[in-house]
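Subject: Orotate phosphoribosyltransferase

B.,
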Amino acid sequence: MIFNKDTAEKTAELLLQINAIKLKPKNPFTWASGWNSPIYCDNRLILSFPAIRNFVREEFSKHIEKEFGKPDVIAGVATGAIGIGMLVAEYMGLPFVYVRPEPKKHGRQNQIEGFIQKGQNVVVVEDLISTGNSSLLAVEALKEAELHVKGMVAIFTYGFDVATENFKKANVDLHTLADYEHLLHLAVAKNYITEKELETLQEWRKNPSTWNK
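Prediction pasted inline below.
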């Protein structure tokens, strides 16, 4: 669920401007999963643009407090959301931790890096939601550490049905700055793509695992 329409369209426009989101229906990308895709999203680029990272930081902070109340801790999902999560925590004056995909194999074997206490309220910051599996592993680690996960916020989601189901099953409240639907609407309005390319992008989202194969 997006926070609101205005934020979704503004975020989508900024991501397109800096090529954090690339739309190439005629020359699709291949994801690590093996899926062919007419879209590629790399939100790490946001960190290189001060005005845009400040916009994302401030929108996250405003909406986190509105939707969840001020938490005790902000947690970033490694590695993509460490940078933006830290910026949000700094802006809100809160402690920050980050969550690895799995515990380290050496040393203290931490999966959660940073200082936490049982019973603390935490909001999780993520950069991108596809199926939601890796994001929810971070939530699971925080719950196992006996933290109360108030919800998750992310910069962008593809809006896959499987992600919706995964978050529903996990009983995790997800809010995003932008989503696929508002991105496509903005991309057509601003002439990033044609109406015909829009049709291709809409078809891909219906069955991304088998598209263009």
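The mean pLDDT is 94.

T.
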